[in-house]
Design goal:
Length: about 950
């Protein structure tokens, strides 16, 4: 949360918008992790010991493609630090400024349709290095000027305003498609979102497509960006975006610089170009059959929810996972038209589960409590009848588990931090490892199923990116490929006697296939019910029925038909994936350049954790009249040390302040320290003759302490515990001898504990349906002054009348010593009043939160309003203290009112919530202004 006046809030919002895409975790790796580096001209790859081969492969790819791709974005090249993270369980990556660095998360996804089947490191190297090139070549014109003045934070601010995020990601996706024989630009799954909107006739405004909605499904900016970039490369040549990007970053057109540059080099205004580019893909992706599949929905139908991973119990009963914008993911059993909730799902990476003989098994995601770059995927078994859940593994990294025929054994994919993959056979009763299946071919297994006790069927990925459906011998790991290997993704195999059903890519569609194990013949499943929907995924087969999942603008939906209604057509394999008529993918000079990349030959060296410890990168101004400051920010590449050196000026007193603040996060507790030196403090007092005189002093404050942040996120709850303890020393050098006693030196200890717990919050809800936040704080001096302050504060969230409503109750109590009031007030005072630090304070409040409207509208690509939400509140604070004569002071501070919040997007990229508050004071504001009616602007409530 940022608390500031409008100018400061706006500056902070824009900077955070530019920097907020970074996904790094401070102090996320344990100190036992050791690091090496490969240092080349374009990149320094920093990696944990044991990942040498992967690091060399990635460094080799970057070195191989960097020169060939420069002409399409620019020739500037600044070395980037790339940190390989191997303790997580997801695929991701980012490149960020302030500081300039990149991180790769190297666990492959099970679903080969989402990102493709290429090795995850290869794809990240190509995609993320394109972002490096974009940042390097944005250092021109006004962006370069702001970088010179404010460092990388200034560059990030200017670049984030000038260049839309769809360009950055669309250009990177084009690069991964252009430099390989796959890439998301060739995968039908990548276009499913826009395909669903077009098929349903959803003609959303440009700002809605850019910013999203709380009521309707809107795809993210990756496919949007790819379509815009690909059409431009195909139509105007391979250097058109280099020119547009350069002029936009330089602000050759000061207002709407990107739109001006696009007009300059394409001859089309922004709106016309968007229309023609998207229509180029729309005409290829939408057919009358797909439009027919949406006729059952109303024209104004909003997002309904998703039904995924169907599993048959019998011909009339099916189990699946159900979720929506209002409801958490739940396992559901459906018999006919009757649904029964089995239980809520724990947190998962992808939601995948399988079922057999009354039991569900799935992998639940759990982060390490302290080291946020370390995660686990632990197996859970659910009894369908009772809903009881049993955990059978702990601190494992298992994916896609499945039972054998009698539920006595489990097969799962084991993914180790070293980058080694294996199939594990486990005892279903206790999760004990019975057998690790050899992997002599080094393949990556996806969605394994038992075919027999000695053979596993799985969709396998090879290091080339080629895939096939294969039988894996449990004893030897030998592969028997049932389908020819090719670059087309395959997933979700299910076994029905001697036939394997699965989903595969063919042409511009993802379709259902079947392969007969005895003769290895592959068939495409055909039928009207299959051709009317977008993609046919996650097949389920019973004795007489076939079910599958397709995508729509209203969520993933399950479809079923009698098996006899489907035609099994012999499949003729195609050699390539579609390019959607973007011929430049094949015709430009660097097409599929990755095929000739070799591992880097650079010598590996140790990377010290203390390399460039301060790494100052940005100069950040702050304006909060009467306080003005400028801060020099630093952060090391491994993200274990953060530093801030700042200078501040207070206009009222005229004092100056120098500060140094640092936190080290590589140990189990964070270690932090701060030094503030303030010159020319002043106030007024009475001398011995009761004359008003000016008092002047310099002030030095020292702080050192520890903090232990813990996250317990297993099951269905997020629980955060934070323990903080610090020693604080304040020394005052008073120039007037008579007033030295009025400003004594003192030392105090500050101990605090915070507890935050919440259940998962569905997308549309304002607050979690159940949550608790408790803070305990105690500050006390450890010298002769004997001052102290105690605070206990709690906020509790409960469901409201409707699913999106919530009730929030808060209570707090604060007390301090009678003699001194060194410590500032921390109690959340009744809204509308000016707070004071009284001897005893008691607070209780209640508020009711509800959505008001979902405008999904904006103007000028500047401001977009997603939601208006309101609350009504009542606050009660009771305070007691003492007058100078020793008599007791007592007062009530009661208020009631209403708040209206605006959940908005700025510049089509930055989420900011602000609000208006009307407060009616029921008692006199003893420490503030006059009048009982107060109207205030809340700026901003939150920046995410």
């Amino acid at each position: 949360m940022i608390k500031a006046k409008f100018c400061s809030a706006a500056i902070a919002a824009l900077i955070l918008m530019a920097l907020g895409a970074n996904a790094q975790q401070f102090g996320g790796n344990p100190p036992s992790l050791k690091w090496n580096q490969l240092n080349d001209s374009a990149a320094r790859v920093i990696y944990p010991l044991g990942m040498d081969s992967i690091a060399r492969r990635l460094a080799g790819i970057i070195d191989h493609v960097k020169n060939s791709t420069q002409p399409t974005i620019g020739l500037k090249q600044r070395k980037v630090n790339i940190v390989l993270q191997n303790q997580l369980i997801t695929t991701n990556g980012y490149v960020g400024l302030a500081p300039f660095r990149s991180e790769f998360y190297l666990v492959p996804a099970q679903n080969s349709f989402s990102l493709g089947s290429l090795p995850v490191g290869d794809q990240l190297a190509i995609h993320e290095f394109r972002h490096v090139q974009q940042f390097n070549n944005s250092n021109v014109g006004l962006t370069a000027f702001l970088k010179a003045v404010f460092g990388e934070g200034g560059q990030a601010l200017a670049y984030g305003i000038a260049v839309p995020n769809w360009f950055a990601e669309g250009d990177a996706v084009y690069n991964e498609t252009y430099l390989t024989n796959q890439g998301r630009g060739r995968l039908p799954y990548f276009f499913n979102g826009y395909r669903s909107l077009w098929a349903a006739g959803k003609d959303y405004s440009w700002m809605k497509l850019r910013n999203g909605s709380y009521r309707d499904f809107v795809p993210d900016w990756y496919p949007l960006g790819y379509m815009m970039i690909a059409y431009g490369r195909y139509t105007y040549g391979d250097d058109v975006w280099r020119k547009i990007h350069r002029d936009a970053a330089a602000y050759h057109t000061l207002v709407y610089p990107f739109q001006g540059a696009l007009k300059r080099y394409t001859g089309k205004n922004y709106a016309d170009y968007r229309t023609v580019a998207l229509d180029y893909f729309k005409q290829q992706l939408v057919s009358p059959e797909l439009q027919k599949g949406t006729l059952k929905y109303k024209s104004n139908q909003h997002f309904i929810g998703s039904e995924e991973f169907p599993n048959y119990v019998n011909d009339s009963t099916i189990i699946y996972r159900k979720s929506s914008y209002k409801q958490r993911a739940t396992f559901v059993e459906r018999k006919g038209n009757q649904e029964r909730k089995i239980r809520l799902s724990d947190f998962t990476v992808d939601g995948y589960f399988t079922y057999n003989n009354g039991k569900i098994i799935y992998a639940s995601r759990r982060p390490d409590p302290r080291w946020t770059y370390r995660e686990y995927n632990e197996l859970k078994i659910v009894d369908v009848v009772t809903g009881h859940q049993q955990s059978i593994t702990r601190k494992t990294k298992y994916f896609a588990p499945a039972f054998n025929a009698d539920n006595s054994r489990i097969v799962a994919v084991d993914v180790q931090p070293s980058g080694k993959y294996a199939l594990h056979i486990l005892n279903a009763a206790d999760g004990v490892l019975l057998k690790e299946v050899p992997n002599p071919n080094g393949v990556f297994y996806t969605y394994p199923r038992f075919y027999s006790e000695t053979a596993i069927v799985a969709a396998i990925r090879k290091t080339s990116g080629n895939m096939s459906i294969a039988l894996v011998d449990v004893g030897s790991g030998k592969l028997t490929e049932l389908t020819p290997e090719d670059i087309a993704p395959k997933a979700f195999p299910v076994v029905q006697r001697d036939t394997i059903y699965f989903t595969g890519t063919s042409g511009i569609n993802d379709k259902l296939f079947a392969v007969s194990i005895p003769d290895r013949k592959v068939y495409e499943l055909q039928g009207d019910s299959l051709s009317n929907y977008i993609g046919n995924y996650q097949p389920a087969v019973s004795s007489n029925r076939v079910g599958w999942v397709s995508f729509s603008a209203f969520g993933y939906q399950i479809h079923q038909t009698e098996r006899k209604n489907l035609r099994f057509k012999p499949f003729v394999r195609t050699s390539q994936l579609p390019d959607f008529n973007i011929s430049s993918l094949k015709n430009e000079p660097a097409s599929n350049l990755i095929a000739s990349a070799a591992p880097a030959a650079t010598s590996a060296k140790k990377y010290s954790k203390l390399t460039h410890p301060f790494n100052f990168h940005s100069l950040i101004p702050s304006i909060d009249d009467p306080d003005y400051s400028i801060s020099l920010m630093g952060e090391n590449i491994l993200n274990t040390l953060q530093t801030e050196l700042s200078f501040g000026y207070n206009r009222n007193e005229g004092y100056k302040q120098l500060s140094f603040n640092t936190t080290y996060g590589a140990f189990f507790p964070y270690l932090f320290g701060r030094v503030d030196y303030t010159l020319d403090r002043r106030d007024y007092g009475f001398d011995a003759n009761r004359n008003v005189v000016e008092v002047n002093w310099n002030e030095t404050r020292l702080q050192t302490g520890i903090q232990v942040p813990l996250l317990f996120a297993g099951g269905k709850n997020y629980t955060r515990l934070t323990f903080t303890s610090s020693v604080n020393l304040s020394m005052n050098n008073v120039r007037q001898q008579a007033f030295k006693g009025s400003l004594p030196n003192y030392t105090y200890i500050n101990n605090s504990f915070t507890f935050n717990n919440q259940i998962a919050k569905p997308y549309q809800l304002i607050n979690p349906r159940l949550a608790q936040s408790v803070t305990l704080s105690y500050r006390n001096t450890i010298n002769s002054l004997n001052a102290h302050q105690w605070l206990a504060s709690g906020t509790f969230y409960f469901p409201g009348i409707l699913a999106t409503h919530s009730i929030v109750i808060n209570a707090a109590h604060q007390r301090r010593d009678r003699a001194y009031s060194f410590f500032s007030n921390q109690l959340p005072f009744s809204r509308g009043y000016t707070a004071d630090n009284l001897y005893r304070l008691y607070k209780a409040g209640i508020s009711y939160h509800f959505p008001v409207a979902y405008p999904d509208a904006g103007f000028g690509n500047l401001l977009y309003v997603m939601r208006l939400r309101g609350s009504i509140f009542y606050d009660y604070t009771r305070g007691t203290d003492f007058y100078r004569n020793g008599t007791t002071f007592k007062a009530n501070f009661r208020s009631a009112g209403a708040e209206l919040y605006f959940d908005t997007q700025w510049f089509n990229q930055s989420s900011i919530t602000f609000g208006l508050r009307y407060t009616r004071l029921m008692d006199e504001d003893l420490f503030g202004g006059n009048g009982r009616n107060r109207l205030s602007l809340i700026l901003p409530l939150s920046i995410f």
